[in-house]
Amino acid sequence: MARRDAHGDAGTAGAGGGEPSRAEALVQRLLSVGIDGRGPFDGAREVARRARAEHPTTESAVHAVVRRHTRMVAASGFATGVGGLVTLPVALPANVVGFYVLATRAVAAIAELRGYDTTRSEVRSAVLLALVGADATDVLKSAGLPSLDVGGRLAALATRRWPPSVLMLVNKGVGFRLLARLGTGGLVRAGSRFVPVLGGAVGAGADALMLRRIAKHAEHALPPVAADALPAGEEDPRA
pTM of the predicted model, to two decimals? Predict the structure, then answer.
C-alpha cells in the first residue's frame, strides 16, 4: 500500500475526478470514530485519560499510547495480510481505513496528553494533517496557508483560530491524499499475498513501522501546549 511511504508524493489528482464526497466521508469517519470514538471503540480523550491514570508522567503515557496502537495495527495488518490474494479486494480497503482510524486516535490521544483540546476544530485538523507526512506541505498550500509550511506547522495550526472554510480545505486535502493511497496502494502488498503467511508478516511489519513514523512526527510536532499558546479568551482545558 502507498501509505507505507508517509513521505511519498500523492496529489489530489491521484484521487481522480468526482472524489470530493468520498474524501469528505473518509475524513468524517476519521474524526467521528478515530477522535470521538463510537460504540465499544473508545475515543482519543478516553484513551488519553486511561493512559494518564496508569502512568506517572505525561511522556510515559504518550509512549504507552504509541506502543498500544502499534500492537493493534500490527495485529490488524497480519490478520488482513494472512488471508492471501483471495481476500485482497475486500480486506485491503478495510485494513487501510482501519489503520488510519487507529493512527488518528493515536495522534489525537498524544495531542490530548500534551494539553490540546481535541474538541476544537483546529486541533482536529492538525491531527488529520499528521497522517499525511510531507504531503502536509501541499495540503497547507492548497488551503492558502503557505506560511505554515515550516517546522511547527501542526502546533501553529492547532493553537490559532482559523476560518471554518480554511479548516475544511485542510481536511479535504488530507482526505484526497489518503484516498489516493487507498486507490493506488494495493500493488505494494499484493506480491506477498501469493504466500499468505508472508503477506501477514509484511502487513504487520509495514503497518507497525508506519504507525511509529506517524506517532513520532506527532510527538515532535505537537509539544506540550502552554497557556499563552491558546487562542485569546480560551483556558487550558487541562488546568
Answer: 0.76
